[in-house]
Amino acid sequence: MGKIIAIANQKGGVGKTTTAMNLAASLAVLEYKTLVIDADPQANTTSGLGHDPKEIEVSIYECMVDGIDISTIIRKTSMDHLDLVPSHIDLVGAEVEMINLDNREEKMKAVISKIKDLYDFIIIDCSPSLGLITINALTAANSVIIPVQCEYFALEGLGKLLNTIKIIQTRLNPDLEIEGILLTMYDVRLRLSNQVVEEVRMHFKNLVFNTIIPRNVRLSEAPSFGLPAIAFDADGKGAIAYLNLAGEIAAKNSIEKVK
Ligand code: ADP
Ligand code: MG
């Protein structure tokens, strides 16, 4: 049975999409059958994995709102063991459309349940918001990864996010766990980066992943080639860091691989 991990932080630009793409690709390299669901109308994961969002007509939202079968919209990627549920820009209106639906927080969970057993890991890239789609992702997920940028105001908004997670645990998804807080865009030369690492580790202790993602230009270049970093610059320190993260997650979760 697949493990569903949401990548969430309502702050933009903290590395959610980079993490979703590269963690998923690294799990695929470790031969876990992996699916990435792009749940952000900006569709950066979709383009980053080589699909043009302008050519996408159906996304997870239409599955949630119009009852389209998710298995009909799964795309292959350039990598073995890595599939994608794409997104597209029209989805901005989806939250409004969903407001009147019954069980509106549990739509994504119902949609994913149909294909859950086909994958070892399902990674959901969330948008920078705590709106209904993100609530749906957190309700569908077994756990959440929270990327935190090693920058000024790193902890800003984290209290609100943790509070939202608590509310979801109480009302919608009692089994939701925090898979880990992931420090991203770390620059060894900057005192600030080191201060953030120290502060986050002091606050959140063993909730923080051992793996730290360095600032690495290849990680930001790879998406313009429609590739995860591991397929673009396999020996780069960014790609290696995400491979280490995948190893850390695989070690923590004893997943029996889907045949
Ligand atoms: P989010 O999805 O949280 O908005 P992104 O993953 O899109 O954040 O990252 C924001 C920007 O920072 C993107 O341009 C991305 O390429 C870049 N970026 C993310 N992580 C790194 C990193 N470790 N090193 C260098 N650039 C990064
Ligand atoms: Mg993003």
From TrEMBL:
Top-rank taxon of the source lineage equals Bacteria
Where in the numbering of this chain does the AAA domain appear? Answer: 3-178
Q: Which InterPro entries match?
A: AAA_dom (IPR025669), DNA_Partitioning_ATPase (IPR050678), P-loop_NTPase (IPR027417)
Q: Entry's Pfam families? A: AAA_31
The record's listing under PANTHER family reads: P-LOOP CONTAINING NUCLEOSIDE TRIPHOSPHATE HYDROLASE (PTHR13696), PARA FAMILY PROTEIN CT_582 (PTHR13696:SF52)
For this entry, the protein name equals Chromosome partitioning protein ParA
Which species expresses this protein natively? Rhodonellum psychrophilum GCM71 = DSM 17998
